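Support request from a user on the community tier.

User writes: "When I paste my structure tokens into the form, the page sometimes reloads and wipes my input. The last time it worked, I copied everything first. Here is what I submitted, just in case something in the input itself triggers the reload:"
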């Protein structure tokens, strides 16, 4: 019983076309013990309508019985349904899928697994049913498995009592070794999508415990040797094909596993594993990668497909074949058209019978010779599916191998119009014939049908999807064939033309049984032929015959009609039972199992007189031989209604026949134009072929007659001589393929040389040969190669000569010339190269002298050696380029030999590592870069590492350039040191270029030549204010009036410990620089000024006094600016006003200019806004309050903002210093201050600025805060931002940072402090000193600032 899928659904599949695919042969009952049959019921609504429509069209609507014409007499009647059949429902089982298996005779066990599937085709529930009485009763034994078990499929060992049930949901298998009495559950490390037993034809299979397990999700392959208890992984991914070794093969291990593995990087490989532990070995790695899904193993053949060759002008097949596990070799096909896909039809009889898909119009059958490499066209244009159906499953093309009869095949060809036409071969494709139709139809009416316009046509694999059962033949029922088809010019696809045909003699003659679509089965080793009307027709009866179709009977198996899905019997077809699988109707509720026990009606067992000898070729015009032998089968006589004993063994006798035409097939490159035409050369076949290249005179060669004996054909003598290869005489050919050799291989003048001539093609017996040695000597000639193939000759002088042999016969001529060298002896060799070199590539040349002074010393062998080690080179010549890496002396040797002489020469080369980094240094430089003017400096060179040297003989060029380059001088020397006088101050770049013949270097060093500081003078006022930056004017003179920016440093020191000392680079402009000096405390100072550079220094000292606040007078003027243009904000106004005030004081009081200090600036009226969010508002402070006065001309601060009023006064701070700190002088200065203040308050002081009169509105004597003149370091201001923008403040509620601005009077400068306050804004209170206080009084001001220091 074969694995068959019966489906009531039409499913359209969309597949992706691949590059190529090879399918193995269909599995038949000969290949293995039977496997389960799948039955399927689709959705009820659509199927019910389809069934009713089919019934109406067939004329059986409303009837529960079918009445095909009986072939027995009317009075025979119908058998009793109760006696023949038993109907068993599977209660409450509405699963739409079933898997059925009958263990096989003599066992009476039948398994049924029903399954429920979801929309994706996955099983979600399963029930296990078992019968032990041929299906009379079934028991639901699902509870023998785990409660969550879902059986997807089950598999049967060749021992048949062992079954494995696969559960892919839970990754488990359930094993029974007792035909379902007990089960063992094993968890497996993969999803068991497929189980493959190691099979054997032995009754007790010693390898029945070996199983392969395949997971199609991960494409992994696993093996067990104990029926699933323990598993070993063979491949964790990429497996696409896998096979056990060939059934009972003698030439390989019985545990061999072959599988195909696809890898994204390396492609597809074929692996083999032969023993435990399982070690995978790649087969034929030189041919990989293969195309995925193309590896096939069948009997002694392995097939695989490689990528087709597209860059060759000639077509080559992508199919590669291995025979008897030998190496893969490329197959050859006669048609030069692309081979895309292959399907193996049969390889069991010592040949490969294969179908090839070329294109949509060409699927052809080919037959090979024994090795499976040379293929001949057997049948063109076989009916087959489109290319998409070739990819994922065995293609449904129409070729059927008749079981039990060797070499018999049916096939459907595509004829004109695209219709099928059935042909048959009885000699495995040697000859194809049309089928002869029956003489009468099923109603006994004559059939008029004359070949070739009319014949019998049968449905095969391609029409199964249309509801037609394919041809049925079984080796248990020799000669019996049943099929669905029609008679006419072509095969019809309509169901109305369908007829059932039966043959009892292997397809030589046919009987028409009935009309319509039926399923049929053989039972009892051919004792019974049973057929039943199939879905979508309702039926309750079967037709059957026990006498090979002479009489057909109808038996009722049920009182009500059912839909029949499938009918089957046990594997081997020995029992007289058949089983019908069906259901009652729609909606589908449960399965019905009908056991037809023909043993109840067929009770007589066949005896010896019921058997006869049958030869398959009896009816074929007296031809009694198939494949060269006459096979005699013992089988039941036609017309005998008895059953064959299940233990009966058929007797088969074989007799060798004489050869006939049908024992030969077309050889490679030949074809039959028609079914019965002879084999003729195909297009592109050259016939007769040219003689072989090696075909000596007076011998023969053979070539094909266009035929070859069919593989495994046993015939002898007979007509064999007509098909044997043709024998022909080898022609006389023009001489060709000559070759001259000589000994010794190297020789000089006056030495004897032996020459030998060989010829590989063409005539040699009657060919004339002539030798010419190329040196002017007389030629030597003679007839026949054997007489003149060796010659001895001596040359007198060195040189290159051509030895020529000319061969001539009546067909043609040819010649061959061999160049030879007569060598001159080598007498001397010399080598040239550098004595000293850097570790780089060094070139050497060798020079050769010869005895006679000629250049004919080659061919020669050259060898270079460095320090005793041979130099490897692809081409060794008289030149050498060698790269040295090691420092020291190296010996370079050259030797030459030409076979008759040899010489050697040496040379020593010293390798020095020249300095790659050379520095210029000098001990005369200060700080490594400075020197005084007119100094003599000696420069030296220094290498960067100890292993480097400045090569001897290096020539140096020194350059002394100014920066920028306005003048330069140079000096050439052979010493690595030089002295130079620098008479001009400036910056210089010292450059040295070193050249040592085989390399060079450059080094640079910048230096500075400085002038000598000659003299210095400092001018300051004798008295300054304490805590005030006093102005000092410094004058420096250089020796030659040259100075360079940034080169002279100034240092100021004081004799008081509290004084500030500092260094400063002077930016000398015309030798003068103004600097500020802070006199922190009142008193006398001795200040020392030091000016220096790297080569010299000078000092200057002077006495300065600092006056305390009570030792000088100070006044503050407030000017009335009302009515004036606001251009008084301009600096020119303030500067002119300051100068006029200073001029007034000097001219009025006759004091020195340094005794007055005047500073003019705009008055600022600070306005503060409270930060409090509860009480926002503006608070004005008293403008005269000391705590809010700010010093500095035009300075102000972000905290203080100018009020936008019509009149903003200018302020002038005036300081009057005494001429000395004596008490009288101090009083005089303070008295002048009081007088000036009095004059100002009386309105007597007016100053003119740019034509405008500016009057002093108010004057204050000795104000608390005096703003001092601007100085680079007098005022320090830090502007601090504590947090970001307003957006972040709002989002994260981070309080703003508040700056506390503290004015410190002691240092006369503004310092800034800040704090990040992690709290709400704070109101600060400052006293007049600018310090934070805790309480509030009259002389303090309160204000609040934001994070930027702005008042709020």
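"...and here is what came back when it finally went through:"
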């Amino acid at each position: 019983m074969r694995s068959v899928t019966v489906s009531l659904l039409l499913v359209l599949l969309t597949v992706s076309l691949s590059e190529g695919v090879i399918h193995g042969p269909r599995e038949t009952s000969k290949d293995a013990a039977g496997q389960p049959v799948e039955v399927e019921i689709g959705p009820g609504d659509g199927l019910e309508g389809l069934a009713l429509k089919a019934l109406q069209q067939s004329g059986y609507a409303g009837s529960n019985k079918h009445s095909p014409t009986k072939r027995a007499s009317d009075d025979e009647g119908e058998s009793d349904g109760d006696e023949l059949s038993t109907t068993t429902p599977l209660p409450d089982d509405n699963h739409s899928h079933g898997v059925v298996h009958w263990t096989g005779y003599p066992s009476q066990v039948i398994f049924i697994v029903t399954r429920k599937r979801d929309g994706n085709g996955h099983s979600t529930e399963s029930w296990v049913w078992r019968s032990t009485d041929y299906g009379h009763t079934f028991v639901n034994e699902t509870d023998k498995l785990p409660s969550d078990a879902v059986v997807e499929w089950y598999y049967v060992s060749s021992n048949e009592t062992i079954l494995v049930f696969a559960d892919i949901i839970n990754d488990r298998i359930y094993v029974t070794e007792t035909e379902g009495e007990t089960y063992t559950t094993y968890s497996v490390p993969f999803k068991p999508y497929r189980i493959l037993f190691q099979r054997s034809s032995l009754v007790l299979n010693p390898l029945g415990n070996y199983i392969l397990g395949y997971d199609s999700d991960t494409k992994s392959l696993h093996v067990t040797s104990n029926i699933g208890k323990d598993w070993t992984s063979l491949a964790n991914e990429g497996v696409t094909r896998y096979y056990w070794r060939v059934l009972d093969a003698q030439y390989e291990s019985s545990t061999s596993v072959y599988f195909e593995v696809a890898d994204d990087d390396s492609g597809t490989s074929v692996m083999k594993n032969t023993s435990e532990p399982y070690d995978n070995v790649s087969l034929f790695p030189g041919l990989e990668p293969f195309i995925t899904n193309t590896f096939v193993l069948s009997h002694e053949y392995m097939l695989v497909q490689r990528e087709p060759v597209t860059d060759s002008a000639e077509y080559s097949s992508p199919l590669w074949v291995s025979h008897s596990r030998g190496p893969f070799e490329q197959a050859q096909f006669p048609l030069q058209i692309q081979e895309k896909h292959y399907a193996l039809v049969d390889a069991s009889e010592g040949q490969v019978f294969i179908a090839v898909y070329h294109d949509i119009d060409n699927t052809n059958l080919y037959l090979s010779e024994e090795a499976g490499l040379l293929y001949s066209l057997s049948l063109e244009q076989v009916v087959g599916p489109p290319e998409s159906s070739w990819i994922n499953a065995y293609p449904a093309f129409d070729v059927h191998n008749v079981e039990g009869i060797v070499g018999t095949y049916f096939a459907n060809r595509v004829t004109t119009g695209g219709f099928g036409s059935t042909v048959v071969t009885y000699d495995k494709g040697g000859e194809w014939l049309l089928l002869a139709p029956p003489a009468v139809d099923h109603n006994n009416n004559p059939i008029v049908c004359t070949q070739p316009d009319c014949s019998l046509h049968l449905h095969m694999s391609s029409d199964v999807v249309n509801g037609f059962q394919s041809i049925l033949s079984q080796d248990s029922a020799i000669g019996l064939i049943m099929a669905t088809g029609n008679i006419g010019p072509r095969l019809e696809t309509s169901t109305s033309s369908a007829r059932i045909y039966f043959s009892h003699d292997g397809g030589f003659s046919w009987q028409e049984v009935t009309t319509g679509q039926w399923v049929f089965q053989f039972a009892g080793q051919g004792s019974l032929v049973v057929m039943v009307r199939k879905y979508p027709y309702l039926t309750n009866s079967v037709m059957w015959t026990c006498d090979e179709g002479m009489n057909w009977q109808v038996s009722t198996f049920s009182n009500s009609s059912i839909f029949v899905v499938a009918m089957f019997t046990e594997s081997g077809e020995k029992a007289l039972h058949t089983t019908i699988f069906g259901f009652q109707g729609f909606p589908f509720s449960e399965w019905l199992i009908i056991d037809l026990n023909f043993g109840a009606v067929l009770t007589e067992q066949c005896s010896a007189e019921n058997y006869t000898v049958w030869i398959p070729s009896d009816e074929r015009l007296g031809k009694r031989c198939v494949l060269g032998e006459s096979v005699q089968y013992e089988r039941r006589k036609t017309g005998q209604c008895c059953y064959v004993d299940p233990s009966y063994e058929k007797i088969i006798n074989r007799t060798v026949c004489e050869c006939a035409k049908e024992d030969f097939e077309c050889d490679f490159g030949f074809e039959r134009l028609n079914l019965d035409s002879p084999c003729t050369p195909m297009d592109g076949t050259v016939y007769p072929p040219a003689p072989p290249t090696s075909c000596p005179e007076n011998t023969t060669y053979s070539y094909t007659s266009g035929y070859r004996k069919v593989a495994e054909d046993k015939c002898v003598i007979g007509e064999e001589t007509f098909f044997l290869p043709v024998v022909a005489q080898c022609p006389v050919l023009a001489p060709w393929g000559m070759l001259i050799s000589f000994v010794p291989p190297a020789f000089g003048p006056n030495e004897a040389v032996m020459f030998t001539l060989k010829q590989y093609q063409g005539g040699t017996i009657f060919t004339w040969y002539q030798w010419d040695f190329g040196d002017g000597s007389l030629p030597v000639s003679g007839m026949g190669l054997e007489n003149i193939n060796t010659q001895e000759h001596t040359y007198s002088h060195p040189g290159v000569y051509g030895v020529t042999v000319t061969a001539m016969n009546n067909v043609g001529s040819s010649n061959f010339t061999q160049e030879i060298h007569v060598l001159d002896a080598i007498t001397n060799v010399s080598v040239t190269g550098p004595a000293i070199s850097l570790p780089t590539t060094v070139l050497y040349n060798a020079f050769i002298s010869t005895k006679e002074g000629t250049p004919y010393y080659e061919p020669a062998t050259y060898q270079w050696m460095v320090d005793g080690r041979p130099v490897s080179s692809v081409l060794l010549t008289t030149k050498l380029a060698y790269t040295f890496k090691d420092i020291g002396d190296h010996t370079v040797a050259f030797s030459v030999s030409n076979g008759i002489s040899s010489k050697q020469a040496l040379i020593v080369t010293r390798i020095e590592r020249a300095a790659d980094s050379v520095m210029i240094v000098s001990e005369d430089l200060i700080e490594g870069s400075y020197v005084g003017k007119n100094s003599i400096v000696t420069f030296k060179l220094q290498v960067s590492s100890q292993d480097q040297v400045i090569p001897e003989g290096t020539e140096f060029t020194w350059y002394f350039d100014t920066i920028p380059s306005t003048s330069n001088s140079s000096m050439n020397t052979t010493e690595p040191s030089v002295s130079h006088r620098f008479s001009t101050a400036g910056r210089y770049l010292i450059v040295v270029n070193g050249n040592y013949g085989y390399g060079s270097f450059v080094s640079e060093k910048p230096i500075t030549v400085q002038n000598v500081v000659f003299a210095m003078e400092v001018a300051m006022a004798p008295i300054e204010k304490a805590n005030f930056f006093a102005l000092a004017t410094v004058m420096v003179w250089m020796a030659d009036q040259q100075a360079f920016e940034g080169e002279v440093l100034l240092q100021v020191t004081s004799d008081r410990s509290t004084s500030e000392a500092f260094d400063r680079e002077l930016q000398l402009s015309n030798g003068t620089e103004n600097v500020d000096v802070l006199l922190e405390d009142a008193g006398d100072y001795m200040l020392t000024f030091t000016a220096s550079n790297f080569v010299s220094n000078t000092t200057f000292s002077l006495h300065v006094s600092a006056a305390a606040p009570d030792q000088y007078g100070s006044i503050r003027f407030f000017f009335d600016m009302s009515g004036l243009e606001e251009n008084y904000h301009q600096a020119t106004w303030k500067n002119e006003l300051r100068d006029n005030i200073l001029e007034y004081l000097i001219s009025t009081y006759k004091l020195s200019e340094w005794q007055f200090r005047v500073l003019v600036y705009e008055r600022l009226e600070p306005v503060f806004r409270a930060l409090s969010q509860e009480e926002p508002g503006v608070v004005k402070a008293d403008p005269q309050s000391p705590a809010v006065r700010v010093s500095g001309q035009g300075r102000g601060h972000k905290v203080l903002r100018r009020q936008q009023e019509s009149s903003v006064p200018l302020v002038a701070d005036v300081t009057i210093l005494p001429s000395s700190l004596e008490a009288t002088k101090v009083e005089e200065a303070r008295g002048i201050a009081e007088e000036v203040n009095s004059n100002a308050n009386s309105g007597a002081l007016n100053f003119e600025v740019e034509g405008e009169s500016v009057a002093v509105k108010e004057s204050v004597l000795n104000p608390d805060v005096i703003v001092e003149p601007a100085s680079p370091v007098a005022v320090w201001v830090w502007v601090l931002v504590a947090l970001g923008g307003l957006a972040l403040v709002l989002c994260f509620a981070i309080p703003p940072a508040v700056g506390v601005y503290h004015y410190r009077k002691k240092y006369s400068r503004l310092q800034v402090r800040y704090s990040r306050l992690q709290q709400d804004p704070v109101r600060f209170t400052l006293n007049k000193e600018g310090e934070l206080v805790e309480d509030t009084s009259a002389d303090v001001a309160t204000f609040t600032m934001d994070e930027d220091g702005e008042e709020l």
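Agent notes: The reload is a front-end session timeout and is unrelated to the input. The radius of gyration is 60 Å. The first helix runs from residue 44 to 58. Escalated to web team.
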